[in-house]
Structures are given as structure tokens and as C-alpha cells.
Records
---
Amino acid sequence: MMEVCDRDLDKFDVADMLNDELGDASGFLEISYRELCSNHAQEMIELQDRDDSDTETLLNFMSRFPETQFLQYLNAEAPVLRKNATRAQQLRDQGNKAYEKANNTMALHLYTQSVRFSPYQQPGLGVELALAYANRSAVLVQAKEWRLALQDIDLSFSAGYSSDLHYKLLERKAKILMEMKDFESAKNSFQDCISSLPSAKLEEDKRENLKLTLTNLINSLQDKKDQSPSDKSKKSAFPNLSSPNPKFPALSSSVDIKFGSSTGRFAVATRDIALGELVCVEHPPVAFLHEETSGINCSNCFRLSLAPLPSPTCTQTVFCSTICQDQAMASYHVVESKFMDVLFQNGLKKKEWFLALRAITQKPLQFFLDIRERLSKDQHNINFGVTEEKDFVYNSSDYNSLYNLVGHHEQWDFQSHAYKAFFALFFIRCLQKSKFFLQHQSPNQSLGPVELYIGRLIVHLMEVATMNAHEIGQLELSGSDNWLLGNTTSVGCALEPTLVLLNHSCDPAVYRLNIGTSTYCFACRPLSAGDEVTNCYTYSYDVTPKIERAPPLLTKYKFQCMCVACKENWPVSSFLPKAFNDVEPNKLKISDPSSLQQKMAIIQQVGAKIHRLQQEEDYDSAMGLYSQFYNALHDLIVPPHQFYVIARRSYATCLWVKHGNKVRRKN
Ligand SMILES: [Zn+2]
Ligand SMILES: [Zn+2]
């Protein structure tokens, strides 16, 4: 009898774990998993008793339960999410009403919705799509978003905009080009407009009048000189690694990866590194936009576009440009859009697990069959990259780099293994729905060898993602406030095989920002040759006290942090000294009163200058002064001190404003 009670408790544990960590009650996966655990309690208990955490064994075992077929969810039609010409037309009509009332924000939103729901049929793509783009271009003209307006006009033509209306769009295009001072192209567009007039449904006198107006406009442009090419140079250039590390090309040559038998892989400075130096640029091999941001930001590069392009195959995804649309369609999106609606209803809290799915969907099955040997269980090497021969290059895009990241498989408990396998089965069923496995797809509910192999990769990458995924952020601001008041929010997540080689510190040596899905790391303080180059995985010391930082590092990342902030138990920012007179005497590096005064004066003057420049939004000039501020501070006071925290935070914001993903929302 006692035994039964214990088992019942185990079942409750599963439920608790789900609530705390893995799912949420609104998703169907939690419901399915609870059903499975209660319908097959005896078998699950027997499995637990065998304590076999082998992934393929678990997948095989659980695939036999009908609950892991997910039939009712995968076969459910979701008509509200499908492309729908009538809905697209209704949305466009509503957009027209908003436009007539000069509510451009609403009009833009509704036209974009219309773009998303418009049927997308090759060739010509669709009447609704062409009309939605055309109408949206008018709103974009009002907003002086010239480039986006031009893009919409071109997209409308490609979508098959009716030839009797071409003259309208061509005239709009010419006027935009005039605004952009690209007079040569404007003339050509006016000329195209005249050429299109014979097909226009216009009364003869109107047609003649329009022709005359257009000819006059062309004549007025004869002597105008183009001024547009400078537009490109105005755009701030992406920061670049001037001298990459030949073996780890995502790192600067100022950083190298070392390896110790007890410490694993870690990064060190090969020379002195100045504050603000770029030390790592990583373009992640796998990234996934969060569900909440999907349909708003570009699913491919995560940038927000005022006028996004639709997915050709589903309504939940948008793209910023034809480039991103083409890239997605050539890799993951064709596979994923066949189950996108189901994917986003599962209630998964561990968003990083989607990375495991994306790592699979972005390559064809043959890719994984070709590298099967290298990704076998006994090939996993957590020191990959440092134990290879001399001329080996550690590339972020290499699936070996991804595969060999740590997942700590042996440290997960049975319940987590079972749930991971259950979740991976959901991904496998999704892949089966999109015919990903081709001729290797099993004809019945048990899995074939290729499906098991992919399933094992998915589970492993779920573990890897749990340990290694980073958030991808964007800086957000409302109205006309100063950027320094902005907040960084997470829009997606990514796996960065080089960045994760840096160890954690609660007082890290680098500051990260995101441009698109890429991560750029800058030194946030001067480093000396031989210093360890660290990154912060979770919370920094100034925000979260040690008592709260330590448990997640131990449970999630399986280590006890030995950084200086942890060893000396530095207080959070609000409990740090805030001025010069509250610094303890033993924390002052200078005792001579006159040099002390001198240093304090420098810190105060430079600090005030930085503050003024930031208020004027001259972030470049402000950043130019940080070294001076930091060095004076460092000569005077032993960290920690609130001045260090403020300097790091405001420098980081300047960097992000200058380079990173950012969005200013209208009030
Ligand atoms: Zn994009
Ligand atoms: Zn620490």
C-alpha cells in the first residue's frame, strides 16, 4: 500500500515540474502529457525503475502510446489562420476607412494584416495581395517612408497589380523618387507612366490632361542633378572584427580559447584590450523568433519592419525584405509553415527548445544522413575545437560545433528525460506531417531508424539549448524620450557556439548587443594580456544578489560561480557606495589629498560631460570619453562602486543605441 502512495507522489511530482518549469496550462502539450502519465502510469513507473535515460530507448518506448501521435492537434484545421481572400479584402476595406480618416497608424496595421491574409498563388501571386501592397504604399508615402513605399509599389507590380491601374502606382513611384532626389529614375518612372496610359481606364480628356501634366513634370526635371547616392553612406556601418582569430574566426585575435582539464574551455586576452574594443562577432547558426514577436518582427533576421512582407505559405510569419523571405523559403520555412499553427499553441515555456527544431528544419534530411557518423553518440566531445589538429578552424556554422556543446545529459533527472522525449516526439510528428523524412518516414506510429536518429539529435539539441541559448534583444522606447530610458526586451533566442566558450562571471568582461540575430561583444572594461574574457549567462551582481544568482547557476548550468563579485559577495547596485565620501578608506587607492582631489575632479568633470552629450543624443562623443572616466575611477577606487555600475550601464546603452536592434514606438 505504501508503495502505491509513493508512486502517486511521483505522479504529482510530474505535475509540479510541469507547472514550475516546462509548460503552461493553456497549452495542449501539458494536457497531453498529463493524460499520458495517468493513462500509462504503470508503464511509466516500470520505465522509471529501469532508470534508462538513453534517448532512443525513451523515444521508442513513448512513441507507442497513442498520446504521442498528437493526431487531434496535428489534424485539426485552423481556418482562422489560413490565407483567405475575403478576409484580406475586408481588412483592406477597413484600412481604406482608416486612411480616409487620416488614421495612418491604423491603416498601416490593417493593410499589413491584409497582406498577411492575401492568398499567394504563383504566378501573379494574387489580386488581394497586389491591392494591399498598393494601398499600403500610399500610407508609407504619408509617413515619408520612401524606401518602404517604393518596395511596396514594386511588390504590388510583382503580385500582378491590374494593368489598367499601373499609371497610378507609376506616378506615385515617380513622386517618391523626386522626394528622394533621384531625378533620373523619377523621369524614367514618369515616362513609364505615360507609356502605361493607353491601358488605363480613363476618359480621353482626362488621359490627355494627365499626359500633359506628366510631360511637364519630366521637363521640369531636365536640369536637376541626382543627390541620392549619399543615402547609403549615411547608414551607420556594422562594426567589424579588424583582425579575427584564425582558429576561432568569430573572435578577435585579441582573444584565444584555452583548455584546462578541470576548467574546460575558456577565453583569455592575448594582449591588452581597450574598453569598447570589439572582441566577438557571432552569426548564430540557429535562431528562433519568439511566438509573441512572430507576425510582427522578421522571422529571419528578427528586425522590425513598418511594412513587412508576408509568408507565402502561412499567416503567422512575416519578413522584412524579399532577401529574408527568400532565405527562409529556401530553408526552414517551407517545412515549418506546414505545422506553424500547431507549433504556436503548445504552451511551451522553454522557448529555447524551438532551436532544436529549427536546427533540423533549416537543412534537408540528406544533410543529416551525410554527417551521421560525425554526430553519433560516441563522437560527442566537449573539448571540440581545442583538441583538434593545428590547422583546424572552429566555425560557428559547422554542425559539429553545435553538436559538441555541452548538454549535461547525465545530470537531468528521469522526469525531465521523459518530458524531453515526449516533446521531441511532438516535433517528430510535426516533421512527419511536413513529409520531412521522405522515404524514411515510418508507416506506423513507431519510429524508423532515421526518425530515431533525428529524434536523438533533437533531444540532444534541446539539452544543448537549455544550457547554451542566448536571448536576442531589441531596445524599445516610447515617444520622443531619450534612448537612455529605453528597455531591452527579448524578441527571440539563438545558439552561438563560439560565444558560449566564454565562461560566466557576474561581473563580466564583455557587453553584448544584437544586430539582427547576430551578437556583438565589446570589452566593458580595459583588460590586460592573460585576463580571462568572461560573459554573463544570467544576472549580473549589480542587479541580483548572490543568494538569488547562485541557485540557477548551479541547477541550470551545473557550476558554482567563483567570480570576484561572488567570492567577495558584492552588494547590488543600490547598496553600493554612491559618492566619494562614502568610500571606505581601504578602498581608496590614493592617499595623498591633492592627487585625490585632482582625480575626483576629473571623474566629476568627465562624468558631467558624458551626461550632457547623452542628453543631446551625441552618443559617439559620449562613448569617446568613457575610457578617460573609467581609468580615473580605476586609479582612485577599488571596485565595486556605483560609479562603475553606472558607467558600464550607460556605456552599454550608448553602444546599443548606436549599433543594436531598436524600435521607437509612437505614443
Ligand atoms: Zn529580415
Ligand atoms: Zn559570480
---
Amino acid sequence: MALELLPVVLGDFLVPRPHDRASARVDPVGDSQPLVVGDLGQRRGKRGRDTLKGVVVVVQHDDVPRRAETGPGAAVDPLFGRRGHAPIVVTSSPVSTVTYDVEAVRARFSALQRPLAFFDGPGGTQVPDEVIDAVSRYYRESNANVSGPYETSRRTEALVEQARVSAGAFLGCSPDEITFGANMSTLAFALTRASSRSWREGDEILVTKLDHDANVSPWLEVAHDKGLVVRFVEIRDDTTLDLEDLERKLSDRTRVVAFPVASNAVGTRTDVRRIAELAHDADALAWADAVHYGPHGPIDVADWGVDLLICSPYKFFGPHLGVAFGRVDLLETWRPYKVRPAADTPVGRRFETGTLAHELLAGFLAAVEYIDSIGWEAIKAHERTLGERFLNGLPESVTLYGLPTMESRVATFAFNVEGMSAEEAATRLGEAGYAVWWGDYYAVEVMKRLGLGDDGAVRAGIVHYNTADEVDGLLSEIERL
Ligand SMILES: Cc1ncc(COP(=O)(O)O)c(C=O)c1O
């Protein structure tokens, strides 16, 4: 694309998408010839589908040049929506190969400065110091409840609002569509109850055998109370979701299809868009559990077409908190369980009960900033490399459950070691300095489907702060068991 055409193209088509946070990192622009063409500040709040094609978009913020992807996916300011004042710079120069510096990333985590390799991300990730600092700063500088006529209360109100904006940008939705809660399970129990108040006996709910129980039991309880029917969508032998079975099980009584974006046991991803389409074709809601997927890639509820989605920031480098997205027109029709004087707007707020954990919202903001500073492209590429390394290095004595390559999965691996219980293997790995899990991790149905008993399987989860050395060390330790 010719450089001189760009301002026109930008004016017509570049509508930044808040969730385009591709490959932002500190990277010298080098010999490019940047051209400032706009100010993101003026574009704050706009959303759309178009992206530039065939050019590199570089964003400069303060003195730190950042760049987005090349080619068909050329993207916009990864920080859009949060630091709207940064100018867009367009360059036609070739992209330099960007190296991901895992040691620089790890230096941001005090928690990682110990001789323990954390493969327990699926149970909760470590948090960088900036998240810890944000939480303690809140207590020092802003601690108060909302709605008080004084400074710290106003600061807290601003923080809550900012957290909604950040969560909206993180999930690809409006800030009004955000509900904060204690964790995913608590939100799920509240929202399933609120959503189904008008459903009738005999109405049906589809859940899947790939789900964590927190996306199943809330429905079982609602079904118990209201005489609804819960049906389980099967998984295939390779642990992928059986969409034909899903289609077969949809009926004109189906009210919701609840499913995971990725399995917290075997790492399998699902075809979220397709599931949402199938649900909508049957006039049912598409209800996604993105808890496990959270640290592994960008979430985009608008692009995915889901009606409701819940995730947990403690799985993506933030504090213990839950965040839900609900389509605004849907939430407006649900009657919330709340105290009478509680605010009715924004609509997501109606489903929050009592005082929010303000300090954790401060930590949440810092966690999203942290992810933005690394960029999903870097995170995905690093995890894929380490995931392949793990899969390729698995010793003969290991039985892996789930997909054998990094296609259609995240780097979460369930396995057993010949001649040894999962508990014993995990305990010995823990003693050797490798933090892994064992059991069913509340993924009750998938473990049953795999024929695994109470002992379940060992689980090792890779996130972007893990290193190749840690993976090699884990593989050697497994071999030694
Ligand atoms: C896929 C999945 N869904 C739901 C949950 C429950 O999340 P929370 O602890 O936030 O209630 C988990 C927790 O491990 C999970 O992995």
C-alpha cells in the first residue's frame, strides 16, 4: 500500500478496535519513516471491524515506540481505549524480528525469584509487582467506599469506573456490560439464577463434558429449583467438542448453551463462533466460560458473538476477582437480586452485590496494563514454542490426554506417568521444584470421559513467564520419576 494513500485510508477505514493489542512491545522503530496521521484520543470509544491491510502501524507512546502486526492483520494501538492520547504512526518499513525477552518479563515478578518452576497457572497465575503495588497504593491513597462527599471516595468512584472501561476494552464490549464479582463461580451462580427467572419447567440447558464444574453446577441447581433439563454435549476421543452432538441436542426448548473457551484440564479450545451460531440458530443464549483461556489470548465477545462470558483475573496475572460480560439488551431484561437502593446503572452494576473489592479493581487495572505491555502476539508465540517443546520432549512413560500438537489447544497438559499415581507423580515433581497439579481440577465430566478415576491426572500449565529451561527441567524430572 502506498504511503501517500494512508491518511485517506485511515480517515475512511481505521476504526480502532479496543481489543487489538497485537504484539505491542518496546521495539526501536529503526529506519522507518513514520508519519503521524491521527490522534487516538479523538477516536476513543469508537468500535468497528476494519483494520489496515498490508502496512505496519506503529504507535508511539511517550518515548517508547511500539508497533503492531504487519500484513493482512495490520492493527491499531494496542493501548487504545486506555491511553487514548498516543499518536498513530504509520510506516512502510519492513518489520524487524522482535524477540521476546522472558527474563525481562520475569524480572517484573518478585514471586518468580525463587527456585520453583510454576506450572500451576491453570489454578492461578503469579502476579507482577506492579499489580501488588497497585493494590497497596489503593489502600494508602484512595481507600473509601463509594458515594461519599470527599476526596478518597471520589477517587474510588473514578477507579471503579476506570476498571469498567478497562474490562470493557479487555473483553471487547461496552463498560456498561461489565459485572465484577468475587470469582467466576460466584458470578455464575448469580447470573444463571437471574437469567432463568422466567424460564419454565421442561426448558433445556446444554452444558458440555469439557466444562469446569463452575459452568455446570450453577445450571444443575437452577434446573433443580425450576424443573429444567440439563443435557451434556459429548466430547470426542481426542477431547475436542462434538459439535454434531451439540446440534443434535439443541431443541426448541433449549434456552442456553454453556461451554468453555478452553478446557482447564486438557487444554482443548472450542470453536466459540460456531457454537454461538448454533446456539443462536436455536434461539438459545451462548454462555462462555473464558476462565481458562484468559491468560492465553485475547477475548473478543463481539467478534465471538457470545451473549455472556465470565473470566477470572487471578488466572491472568491479576488479583482474585471475577469479571462477567453480559449483552446490554439481555441484562436489561433480567431482574437482578439486589438491595433496593443500589444503583441501576450501568446495567452490569445491577448484578453486583454489596461493596466491590476496590483494591482488587486497582490490581485488575494494573494486570490489564501489564498484559498490554507484553502483547498477546508475544504471549501466544512464546506459549506455543514452549508447548511444542513440552509435547515433543515427553518421555515414552507418559500418557498424554488431549491433542498431541499445539493446534486447537492452549499449553495446558494433563498426563499420567506409567506405574505411578497422579498424586505421587505430582508430589514428587513438587518436591523437585516443579509446581504441578493432580486430580480432576473440577473438570469432572472430561476426566470421567477419559476413564480417569479419583486420582485423575497430573496437570502442567504453561504461561508466558515460563522458560524453555523450566520445560526441559520438568521433562527430565518426569523421565526420572
Ligand atoms: C475453566 C474454569 N472455569 C471456572 C473456574 C472457576 O473459577 P473461579 O475460581 O474464579 O470461580 C475455573 C477455575 O479453575 C476454571 O479453570
---
Amino acid sequence: MRKQQRADIVRDRLGELYPDPPIPLDHVDDFTLLVAVLLSAQCTDKKVNEVTPELFRVAGDPKRMYELGEAQILEIIRPLGLSKQKAKNLEGLSKRLLDDFGGQVPRSFEELESLPGVGHKTASVVMAQAFGVPAFPVDTHIHRLAQRWGLTSGKSVTQTEADLKRLFPESSWNDLHLQIIYYGREHCTARGCDGTKCGICRELYPNRRKPPTTKKA
Ligand code: SF4
């Protein structure tokens, strides 16, 4: 089966399973989404959703976040991984938004990626989920599943993003990003798999005899 045929099947099946995938990180606007995405690095969305109600109650905009300051932010987000660095970044990011962007979250990859703690993946999630701009953020789940489904060689996350963008129509990127994450969490975890237990893989690889191998992100 050709790679494009596999991609089409994946898109159809995920569309059937998750017709309207919700955004998993709780937020109320662009700023709180940006904060939640930044906090989710090396951490589950569930954990992030446990600390953000209090953080957003006391610092739901860049001015109040900056005024709260690194030490107080850290007190609230301490249960999360990399909390010290994240607290520092949230203070710095809020200052940059106030100084350079009129307190608003900028709407370009370049400007977003210039903010403290915001890399390409975080910027892509914000562009997609806050502004509806097509993007394909690749995290470890997506990197793993794309390899198990034979959609990329998995050489790097950059390569995986480029391969997925080529195989799927732009209009489907934002939903697919979420659908693949949900499928990864629920069915195709990081644990080993013989590559035949799910209907998707049996359809893509009816003659599969060996478990698929994956390269880490
Ligand atoms: S069969 Fe294994 S590799 Fe394929 S989708 Fe299911 S869990 Fe993932």
C-alpha cells in the first residue's frame, strides 16, 4: 500500500473515532491557552488543568502574571515538571507581551517563537487552537504514531511534521493533530506493540509480521 493510501485511511478512521476533538488544555482566551501550552511541556494535560484554575484566578492576563512574579508563580505551578524554568518563562513572557505586543498574544510563528519558553511546537499549538491557522504540532505521541503507521521515517520531529503536512490536506491538520494525540493516549501508547492489535494497523499492514520500530523524538 502506498504512503498516501495509508494516510487517507488514517484520516478517515480518526475522523470516525473523534469527529469533533476538543482542546484538552483548559483555557478562557489566547493568553491562558499560551500559558497552558507552555506549562504542558514534559507534563500531562491533566496535571496542567489541576494548577491552571488557581493560576488564572490570580493572573489571568499578562499584567497580573508579570506582577505576580516568578516566585509566586512557582508556588502555584510547583507540582508540574520543570516548574522553576516555567515560572521564569511565564514572568519573562508576560513582560515581553506588555512591552512589545500591547499585552496581546501575537499572531505569527516568528513573534510567538521569540517569546521566552515558546518553541515551534508551542507556537504551532497556539496558532492552530487560538487563531485557527493550519499547523501540525508534532509531539512525542504524534512522532511515534506517524512511524507506526508508516507515514514518516521518524528521522526527526521536523521531518515528521513535513511528511504529515505533505500527506494530509491543510484543512485537516488542526483536527488531526488532536485526533492522533487522543488515539495515542487511548490505544497506541509508548509501550511496545506487535503492530496488529488495532483495526487501523490491520488495515494498513494486513501482512505485518514484525512489530513496528520507532525512533524517539
Ligand atoms: S496496532 Fe499497535 S502500533 Fe498499531 S495503532 Fe494499535 S497500538 Fe498502535
